[in-house]
Design a protein that fits this description.
Blueprint lengths: L5 H4 L20 H30 L3 H25 L7 E3 L4 H8 L2 H4 L4 H28 L2 H5 L5 H13 L6 H4 L3 H17 L10 H4 L1 H18 L8 H7 L28 H28 L7 H21 L5 E3 L1 H10 L4 H16 L1 H8 L3 H21 L9 H28 L9 H10 L3 H15 L6 H4 L1 H4 L10 H6 L13
Antiparallel strand pairs: 1-2
Helix pairs in contact: 2-3, 2-4, 2-16, 2-17, 3-15, 3-17, 4-14, 6-14, 6-15, 8-14, 8-19, 8-20, 8-22, 10-12, 10-19, 14-15, 14-16, 14-21, 16-19, 20-22
GO molecular function: transmembrane transporter activity
Keywords: Membrane, Transmembrane, Transmembrane helix
Pfam family, one: Xan_ur_permease
Amino acid sequence: MAEAKPEEISHPPMEQLQGFEYCIDSNPPWGEAIILAFQHYILALGTAVMIPAVLVPMMGGDDGDRVRVVQTLLFVTGINTLLQSLFGTRLPTVIGGSYAFVIPIVAIIQDPSLAAIPDGHERFLETMRAIQGALIVSSSIQIILGYSQLWGIFSRFFSPVGMAPVVALLGFGLFERGFPVVGRCVEVGLPMLILFVVLSQYLKNVQIKDIPILERFSLFICIALVWAYAQILTSGGAYKNSTEVTQINCRTDRANLISSAPWIKIPYPLQWGAPTFNAGQSFGMVSAVLVSLIESTASYKAAARLASATPPPAHILSRGIGWQGIGILLDGLFGTGTGSTVSVENVGLLGSTRIGSRRVIQISAGFMIFFSMLGKFGALFASIPFTIFAAVYCVLFGLVAAVGLSFLQFTNMNSMRNLFIVGVSIFLGLSVPEYFFRYTMAAQRGPAHTKAGWFNDYINTIFSSPPTVGLIVAVFLDNTLETKDAGNDRGLPWWVRFRSFKGDSRNEEFYSLPFNLNRFFPPA
């Protein structure tokens, strides 16, 4: 056998991923764009329904309160997504509800002054107002870090070696929302997982009128088929004698969203009443805002790669964080019950469909706003069993993790220094949050349990986030360990030109503001 040539063994680094027909500033035909946008809307429903389903009952709210919170969260998600895609990073990202805020929000819910309120609905309203106040105050952190360019300055410490583990942990760190949830109703979740993989990957070349419909619209097709299959199981009495947990995860009629939803309801600011402010609760919420900032930074890096755009320069990254801070402010004003971050699953869908168009995401924001006002119709789609979403997450979160690992192609992975940084940061990024999770499940409180509640929220929130732990470890090691003459190994020759807006001529094409606003807000 002839000896293999070097070019046959290795693959040269590539700035753009292969196989994408539409990138950030190219648009599919309107018909395709609308269906693709509807897929992003459907996918965003998973988080928009799940977070209120967990928090609202703890706050004392009933099904009607839960529906209104879901509507509000979806409405503000649409507004924030539009603002971010128009004036923020301009990347095709959905800005949805964040699980990072759950720990400080639960601390507010368990506040003795609120927990002692006997009437459930009154306790819900008072708790929601306290959450609103904490979100409004803490949103100033992202607004300040973003618009002052401080986060952009800090991002200059990033390199491909430091960011690869962080972006990878964005996907790997969400494994608890993948197959562990599928396993709660395996007869629905497993068929969804298998069907989605088969249609989107093995049959992706099936075309109708030169359109690869199974590759681009597999999510919509799979959810429709498996949802109908789950409805047949429910109507046929398959779960009549099942446990309560099985019925909640498998049945299509247990959400109680459709019956509780109004036909038309437009969310508006301060709809729950005037927010209340508490210094300790606000300080605790700041930890979630910082986690949201880090997770969103990693998401923007992944989304840029999946949209065939250059990595967002420091100025653009800061601009996006500033607008995300405004998004959290809107969360507080409207009362969504949680803060905002970039939706990781929607970033993964860019890779699954191989469509990174900004216009698609903007149309999906329109769907979110429209269906959040038409309560019954929005509740119909929101009643999809969460197990179906979890099956899709198994694929999409894995895609995002792989995008993070793809940054390593620009580095020297024959360097023991780089292997140490990547390996240790990924391992600790998974291991530390898992310790915090298991400790919390066993003790019903986090490992940090001092008399200072805000300090507990800080520690328990920050170290429960895999990307945050990964960033702390990776960036510290990358900037302190054998840095002399390590620039080439770290991938800086490729990375450094994207730090400034004028470092690459393509940045203007991808990130310039619309309506010629760059005349008034010139990028640095």
